[in-house]
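Dear colleague,

Thank you for sharing your sequence with our group. We've completed the structure prediction you requested, and as agreed, I am returning the results in plain text so they can be pasted directly into your records. Please verify that the sequence below matches your submission; if there's any discrepancy, let me know and we will rerun it promptly.
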Amino acid sequence: MKKVTLILCVKLMAVMMLASCTGGGTKDEEPPNTGGGIKDEEPPNKTTLSKEVTIGKQVWMTQNLDVDKFRNGEVIPEAKTDGEWKAYADAGEAAWCYYENDPANGEIYGKLYNWYAVSDSRGLAPVGYHIPSDAEWTLLTDYSGGAEKAGAKMKSKQGWAEDGNGTNSSGFSGLPGGNRNSNGSFDLIG
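Please find the predicted structure tokens below.
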């Protein structure tokens, strides 16, 4: 069975991955119901949801996740203030936002999701996808030359601050989408 890996703009995972590259996942026999970023088995005649790039034996989406509902259709609340973001986190509840609460940033980077949205059993990713595991990220970075080299290969050629642009030789086109801290503050965009 072909292994396929897809990228979703799950910014928390992205920040943990290679200096804020947007991140993805892998195709499985049985999709885990943890939501998020890996492409699972495709039904016949299914339309591709995004552009993809093959890196090793994994296929990654090259666009950012931009959903406001879980896989089962339940709404994920938008946190529009620092207080709302913190309240959702304190309550252990899922939430999303745009960087600096500006929808224009969503056009470029997609949405930011808190850990509760990423790990929610209702599934953050569209049907047929899931969040990449640590092992899948490791497979990606190892194939790309290890952590020291993978970042440059996966980063876009523009948009990164302080000469942080990459070569994008992988075709991954990772963007510096930033993150939102547990207190609601934003950082690391650009």
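Summary note from our side: Residues 11-72+117-179 form one domain.

Kind regards,
the structure core
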